[in-house]
Design goal:
28% helix
């Protein structure tokens, strides 16, 4: 049974209880799309002029793409400001684990009206797969100076909190008790802490990072001005620390950080309590 106050089991139009993404994906397309559209923040529909019922824009064209194959326990939601836009405004990838838990693989909410920075491309214009295939340093510097975090291509819409409240209730309605995620950057990890996540793996690393960014620490000392990403003072903010870590300031790679959120429970973790 759902754990969150006032929440009800997820049911199909015929009254069948739905307890998995595979159950949802077996529904007729219109009903399935309606259920997944329910985890898109209403403010996003309003901002982009999209009907939450038909998923069409004011010009009558489809703006929301939902990929949820029958027989599979995964789903992807893409929302675009204009049909045919290369870049999405809202992008969500989710999957169900073998242990009946929800994996929040990706959630990106971009401002379609904000300037875009090509940090996702190498200097030859090729996709760099989150910089694993090379970095675009000039664009990263521009993005950092504009206040963006690593891997951000444009300013966000500050809607993650609205999305996550809907998403947690959605997960709870299928009688799942846990949401799993893998933060790709330091700022992602700290942000997830705010929404009640704890660490399956990586908490020791996060605590060590905080300790070594304090005056006298190894990371504090390494902020020596040797690159734009390692300037003195960057230790005081999540933004500064995240760019320094993205630049490779750690002795170990940023990987294998795994976090989880128990439905209805805020873990109270704060690995950077003195952040500005």
């Amino acid at each position: 049974m759902p754990r969150l106050p006032g929440n009800l089991p997820l049911c199909s139009a015929s009254g069948s209880v739905l307890s998995s993404l595979k159950d949802i994906n077996a529904l007729a397309t219109a009903e399935k799309d309606g259920m997944y559209a329910g985890i898109i923040p209403p403010r996003l529909f309003s901002l982009l002029g999209i009907s939450p019922r038909t998923l069409l824009g004011a010009d009558g064209r489809r703006r929301v793409t939902i990929i949820a194959p029958e027989g599979m326990s995964l789903a992807r939601i893409e929302v675009r400001y204009r049909q045919g836009d290369r870049h999405t405004t809202f992008f969500l990838d989710i999957a169900e684990t073998h242990y009946h838990q929800m994996e929040l693989s990706f959630c990106i909410i971009n401002d379609p009206f904000a300037p875009r920075f090509a940090v996702d491309l190498d200097e030859n214009g090729n996709d760099n797969a989150f910089t694993t295939l090379g970095r675009n340093i000039p664009e990263e510097i521009r993005a950092m100076q504009a206040g963006l975090f690593p891997n951000q291509t444009s300013r966000g819409l500050r809607m993650f909190g609205e999305f996550f409240e809907l998403f947690e209730r959605f997960v709870d309605s299928m009688d799942m008790d846990m949401i799993m995620a893998e933060p790709l950057t330091y700022d992602n990890a700290v942000r997830y802490e705010k929404y009640g996540f704890d660490y399956l793996n990586g908490r020791r690393m996060m605590m060590e990072i905080n300790r070594e960014f304090m005056p006298g620490g190894v990371l504090f000392t390494a902020l020596d001005g040797s690159s734009p990403f390692r300037m003195p003072g960057m230790d005081r903010t999540v933004h500064g620390r995240s760019w320094a870590i993205h630049d490779g300031i750690l002795d170990e790679p940023w990987e294998d950080i795994r976090i989880y959120k128990t439905i209805g429970v805020h873990a109270g973790v704060n690995t950077f309590p003195d952040r500005i």
